[in-house]
Design brief:
The protein is α/β, with parallel strands linked by helices. Helix content is 38%, strand content 16%. The chain binds 3-[O-phosphonopyridoxyl]--amino-benzoic acid and pyridoxal-5'-phosphate. 3-[O-phosphonopyridoxyl]--amino-benzoic acid (PXG) is lined by residues 51-52, 110-112, 115, 144-146, 219, 223-224, 252, 254-255, 280, 406, 408, 413.
Length: 440
């Protein structure tokens, strides 16, 4: 074992079973294209594009070069009352790719920060327009909006909320989730059943009076809780109800944006326009942490009042619009365009869907879901040991098959590269099948 690996004691790992992990650590020391290099020198295929982050593959030469150049040109400058050329250029680029009407861009460093920023913008917007009574925020069960207090509160991941239950922000409610094995197990793409589940928002509008609600936040396709594509007509219905009650609709596109749904933004794929979009991950291909919140002119304009020398929104991060992150973002957008990445992603969808759904007959599998290049295979939990099957699959893939897969409990999630090779994609699923066959 190398010196670094002997010293894992100091390292408190995020979202990891630390004690179990440290008995036999899985450590990556390099990457190139679609493969990682393990600490033992092994080559591992990555079925998750990092953590939904790296759709172009790892260490893309154009992004690497842009970062190297930027870090030697302008490593940092504050973006409060000063800014840098790269942040300004990236804001222009990203809003040009956004759905019509989405015209302004606020930078953060992560999805969690994007979500908390978006919630604050929504509250500030209503107050600026004289509707300060609109304070309530609505999320959805099984939603994931990061781990900061705002995002955790509107989120619907039970284990993430449990310990902090008494400290979640007040004034938050949740509409019900859209998962239902009885009505839509093994659906390919968007389920036909379930548009009516959006009417749960009307229930909350009736309970609180819609005039007290500031915003509704949903992922267009729920990602972290096991890939839940929206039922046909569901997002349209949410939009309608929000319009009826004057509520802002926030799409959390931390996963969905930048090609995962074969468009710059998920909103464009579904043809449903939110008022605010949160992003991160694919904004820089995961190379440098960065997020962005995109809003319409009307939201931005609502803040632009009062004395001109005064700050309009008392919010921002030390690293908002970091020049090296912005350079990575600009290079990433350049590659998406030059390589036709979103078209490549579209062309892979059918193959991906077929491979996923070939698991429908497997003895452990109780559901398969997919949309765009997001997919999930859900296994039944082992009696008395939920999560054990998924965990075992993950470890076997890593150690025995040199394959990095992602499991949330017993659901295997897939986020293939937007430029995957069809044969490698196929091989990875053949391997997973072999592994599932060996698991009790
Ligand atoms: N919103 C959404 C929709 C996300 O998917 C976040 C916010 C938070 O982003 P940061 O950058 O703060 O992590 C995310 C992040 C998984 C998994 O296994 C997904 C995420 C994070 C961790 C695990 O699917 N998504
Ligand atoms: N804590 C302290 C003491 C700080 O000075 C700052 C920023 O200046 C923060 C927290 C917030 O850090 P960031 O802007 O990186 O989110």
């Amino acid at each position: 074992m190398s010196a670094a690996l002997k010293n894992l004691d100091a390292y408190w790992m995020p979202f990891t079973a630390n004690r179990d992990f440290k008995k036999k650590p899985r450590v990556i020391k390099g990457a190139s294209g679609h493969y990682y290099t393990g600490s033992d020198g092994s080559r591992l295929y990555d079925t998750f594009s990092g953590l939904w982050t790296s759709g172009l593959g790892h260490c893309h030469p154009k992004i690497v070069a842009a970062v190297q150049k930027q870090v030697a040109t302008l490593d940092y400058c504050m973006t409060f009352q000063v800014t840098n050329d790269k942040a300004a250029a990236l804001a222009e680029k990203v809003t040009a790719m956004a759905p019509e009407g989405i015209t302004r861009c606020f930078f953060t460093n992560s999805g969690s920060e994007s979500v908390d920023t978006a919630l604050k913008i929504a509250l500030g917007y209503h107050r600026a327009r004289g509707e300060g009574n609109r304070t309530r925020l609505i999320g959805r069960e099984r939603g994931y909006h990061g781990v900061n207090f705002g995002g955790m509160s509107v989120g619907g991941m039970v284990p993430n909320r449990k310990v902090f239950s008494a400290n979640l922000i007040p004034g938050v409610d949740h509409i019900r989730h859209t998962q239902d094995l009885e009505h839509k197990a093994f659906t390919r793409g968007q389920p036909a059943w379930g548009a009516h589940l959006a009417d749960d928002l009307e229930r909350l509008c009736a309970l609180h009076d819609g005039s007290n609600i500031a915003a509704v936040i949903v992922e267009p396709v729920a990602g972290s809780t096991g890939v839940l594509p929206p039922p046909v007509g569901y997002l349209e219905r949410l939009r309608e109800i929000c319009d009826k009650h004057g509520i802002l609709l926030i799409f959390d596109e931390v996963i969905a944006a930048f090609g995962r749904l074969a468009r710059p933004f998920g909103a464009q794929r579904f043809g449903v326009m939110p008022d605010i979009i949160t992003t991160a991950k694919g904004l820089t291909n995961g190379v440098i942490p960065m997020g962005a919140v995109l809003v319409s002119d009307s939201i931005y304009d609502a803040f632009m009042q009062g004395p001109e020398h005064m700050i309009e929104l008392f919010h921002g991060y030390t690293y908002s619009g970091h020049p090296v992150a912005a350079a990575a973002g600009l290079a990433t957008m350049g590659v998406y365009e030059e390589e036709g990445t979103f078209e490549q992603a579209a062309a892979l969808e059918q193959h991906f869907e077929d491979l996923l759904h070939s698991f429908a007959d497997h003895k452990h599998v109780i559901d398969v879901r997919n949309f765009g290049l997001m997919g999930a295979i859900e296994m039944a939990p082992r009696e008395g040991a939920p999560g054990a099957r998924g965990g075992e699959a993950h470890k076997k893939c890593f150690w025995d098959e040199h394959l990095v897969i992602r499991n949330g409990m017993d659901t295997l999630q897939f986020s293939p590269f937007l430029n995957s090779r069809p044969d490698e994609m196929q091989k990875s699923f053949e391997t997973i099948r072999r592994v599932l066959d060996t698991i009790e």
